[in-house]
DNA sequence: GCCAACGTTGGC
DNA sequence: GCCAACGTTGGC
C-alpha cells in the first residue's frame, strides 16, 4: 500500500470533476513526463493519493484511490504514455494549503516542496498521516 | 500575467 | 554526447 499526490489545475480538471465521475473513476490522462509516468506505473489498485489544486487554490482538497493500474493513455497515440484510473474517496474536511505544508518542519522533504513541477509524486506514510491530521480527515 | 525552474529537442 | 534553444509548469 503506497501513497501518492496528483496535481491538477482546478479550471481544467478539479475535485468537482473527479467526484462527478463517482465510483467508476476516470483516467488520469495527459501526463507527458517520464518521472510522473513512472510513478503511475508503480501504482497498485487500492493505493491512495492526495488531490492537489495547482496554479489556483494551491491546496490538497481530497483523497483518491487507484482503481485501475497503468494502461495506455487513451488521449495519446504515442505508446510511451500510460496512465492509471483514479476515483474520489473523500474530500478533505479542511483543505491543507501549500503554505501550511511549507511552514511545517516535518514536511520539508515532500516532493511538493522541493520539486513543485512534478505532477504525480510519491508521498511517504509519515507525510500522509501528518497531512490528514492537519486536514482533520481520516487517513 | 510574469518569469524562474525544469524537461525536452535537435543541430553540431 | 553536448548544450543552446525552446516549450511548459506553477508559484507568486
UniProtKB/TrEMBL annotation:
Domain EVE residue range list: 2-133
Gene3D superfamilies, A to Z: ph1033 like domains
Pfam families: EVE
Name of the protein this chain belongs to: EVE domain protein
Organism: Yoonia vestfoldensis
Amino acid at each position: 500500500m503506497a501513497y501518492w499526490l496528483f496535481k491538477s489545475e482546478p479550471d481544467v480538471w478539479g475535485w468537482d470533476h473527479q467526484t462527478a465521475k463517482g465510483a467508476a473513476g476516470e483516467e488520469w490522462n495527459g501526463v507527458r513526463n517520464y518521472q510522473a509516468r513512472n510513478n503511475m506505473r508503480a501504482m497498485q489498485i487500492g493505493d491512495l493519493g492526495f488531490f492537489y489544486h495547482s496554479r489556483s487554490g494551491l491546496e490538497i482538497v481530497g483523497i483518491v484511490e487507484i482503481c485501475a493500474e497503468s494502461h495506455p493513455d487513451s488521449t495519446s497515440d504515442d505508446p510511451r504514455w500510460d496512465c492509471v484510473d483514479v476515483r474520489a474517496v473523500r474530500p478533505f474536511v479542511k483543505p491543507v494549503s501549500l503554505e501550511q505544508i511549507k511552514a511545517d518542519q516535518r514536511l520539508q522533504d515532500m516532493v511538493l516542496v522541493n520539486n513543485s513541477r512534478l505532477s504525480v509524486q510519491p508521498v511517504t506514510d509519515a507525510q500522509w498521516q501528518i497531512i490528514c491530521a492537519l486536514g482533520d480527515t481520516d487517513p
